[in-house]
Here is the input.
Amino acid sequence: MSGFKSIWRRYRVPIIILGLLVVSGLAYGGARYSRPAPTIPTATVQRGDFLETVKFHGRIIAAKSVLIKAPAIAGDIQITFLARTGTAAKVGDIIAKFDTSKLEDTLNQRRSDMKQAEAGIGEERAKARLQDEQDRTDLLTAQYDVKRAQLDASQESILSPIDGAEKKLALADAEQKLHEVEARQKADQASSQATINGKIQDRDKAEADVKRAERDIAAMTLRAPTDGVVTIYPNWRAGGWFTDNPPEFRPGDHAWNGATIAELPDFSSLQVSTRIDEVDRGRIQLDETSTVRVDAVPDREFQAHVARISALAKIDFTTWPPPRNFDISLQLDTRDTRLRPGMSSNGRIAVNKVPNSIMVPVGAVFSQSGSSVVYVLSGTKFVPRPISVGLRNDDQVTVTSGLSEGEKVALKNPTLVEKP
Here is the structure.
């Protein structure tokens, strides 16, 4: 007893430390082995219709739309007003306006020319009336002189031969002068009418110029020909012709002759335009269904169907070697007011349906020694089981043997999950 006390007094501190270490180790071990096993996500084996799909990337377009273009007027014109993208427009609403100051100056000048032409017509008509009155007076005088000369000549029997001859000569002179006055009257009338006609032509030309200037000014205001939602086009000049993302047109920009400023798409005709490789062309048929996701509307999936497939392949030079692609249009069967032409999209076209298929997620199938394996939940453990796989798409794999409907399989390899 005295020996134990002696040992205790001598090794008391090391013994206490050792005891604390043992207790701590037991506590740690108990806590470690009492923790639950790591949670491995699982999926239920399902039976149903398996869809074999073809993926695509495309953009939203409007099969029917109205383009709003700058008027065909020589030179660049400046935008003074422009509706914003997304603005709901009714027929007749103003979409864009352009600077009309130069055209208004031209219109004022044309109107001045027209007034001068009108005044010229009135002046020439007044001159014609005065000339006509003078010609009529001269004509009446000449006619009177002829009648008087005829009366004098009729007295030839009571006149001497010399006087009778003089009277005949006087009659001939009067008749000749009458003919000259009549001819001059006709010539003056024709000349006056020709001058007036020339002035009328000048007036008509000035009036046509006025109407043309008025039309040009009216054309500087672009109105909606139909109901729609405004989509402003990019201004390629502002960002450069080789810019991938040029800014939209905006007030203050200059537009060129016939430039497309905006578009009023028919939202009932929205489609997805895409291309598919010639390898997949034979697998896709008209009216096949598709699901579409739009990058700008991430919270919704849209249903669509194949509406058009181009008959001829086109070479795509964006990659090398350039593949041959076919253009495809998919009609959207569901609508959303947030959709706009030009938005990027992606989706899948269902090209084959296999009914009554056993399916698991792609992430549940693992490769082991060259074979496909799944880990089936049995009680609290995952048991590896070889399977035979069939078709697959981006999300699911069909299992031809090795699994039954309702079983649960791991979505992560349990052998690779860090153990506690």
Notes: DSSP finds five helices and 22 strands in the chain.
